[in-house]
Amino acid sequence: MTMTESAKVRHPEKRNRPDNPIQRKPSWIRVKAPTSQVYRETRDIVKANGLHTVCEEAACPNIGECWAKKHATFMIMGDTCTRACAFCNVATGTPAPLDAMEPENVAVAVATLGLEHVVITSVDRDDLPDGGAEHFVRVIQATRHHAPNTTIEILTPDFKGKQGAVESVTDARPDVFNHNLETVPRLYPGIRPGARYFTSLELLHRVKRIDPTLFAKSGLMVGLGEAREEVHQVMDDLRAADVDFLTIGQYLQPTPKHAAINRFVTPDEFDSYAAVARGKGFLMVSASPLTRSSYFAGDDFKQLRAARDARNDGANGAE
Ligand code: SF4
What we know:
The chain is α/β, with parallel strands linked by helices. It contains 13 helices and 10 strands. It has helices at 5-8, 12-15, 37-48, 54-57, 63-67, 102-113, 133-146, 165-171, 188-191, 197-210, 228-240, 267-279, 297-318, and strands spanning 52-53, 73-76, 80-81, 91-92, 117-122, 151-155, 176-178, 215-222, 245-250, 284-287. The strands form 2 sheets. Strands 1-2-5-6-7-8-9-10 form an 8-stranded mixed β-sheet, with helices on both faces. The radius of gyration is 19 Å and the shape is globular. The structure holds iron/sulfur cluster.
């Protein structure tokens, strides 16, 4: 993946960081260049509706594969984030005011792409009184209106813990409520300095307490210097918060101004993480070098629903 990285680094906190050389990727992380016709159609629909995608903004390595299947993940509330996380390629700065037409435009794009399942995420909007919760609600409502058969997965920020934010988004009833922990608590000060591990964990737990029928999902990046035992502890914390679905992927350094990769985790280690997580009771686990929150999210959602049905059938049968 190549982006004009330095042009994207618009925040003094990021610009002033020392350079970390980017390591060569191992053979298991090679991705194909995006060339297909469907990729171009997806890009045109995104552009025609004036939308942003995390696929582009985060320089996701899977864009060629996902967009060739029209799987784009929309990033709402602008392309500028109020935080400057050390792993994230999204530009940081003072965001523009919210676009009142964005909910409609996202919904039309979802309908035009004919998506069975859509993932909608956002930048952090700590400048807004509700952290952007109502805008999420409007996007969910517009999408339900224009694409009633599309299942909706939201990947939210922590809303800075603003009162009522999680409740209003949960009340809009997305099918999946995703919020990523990103890394182990010990690494938060360096990797996710504007966030608190237990605030994020509590957000997920609150979603399940408000509506246990919603699927809760979270994700981790590995390769940042975490110990295996720390990852296992995060799994335990997520299960204690009743989270259903865990994704684990390799952290890839977007630019020299971002956190350095500590190491490349091998495919066998990902398989081992997946086995441990399943043993801890997650309904679904996706763990591989190129796993991202939204990678194959539509296929995963079908499996998630089937896994819950099977678990419920098993519980009923055992009564
Ligand atoms: S994995 Fe997610 S962010 Fe990356 S290209 Fe696919 S849909 Fe976009």
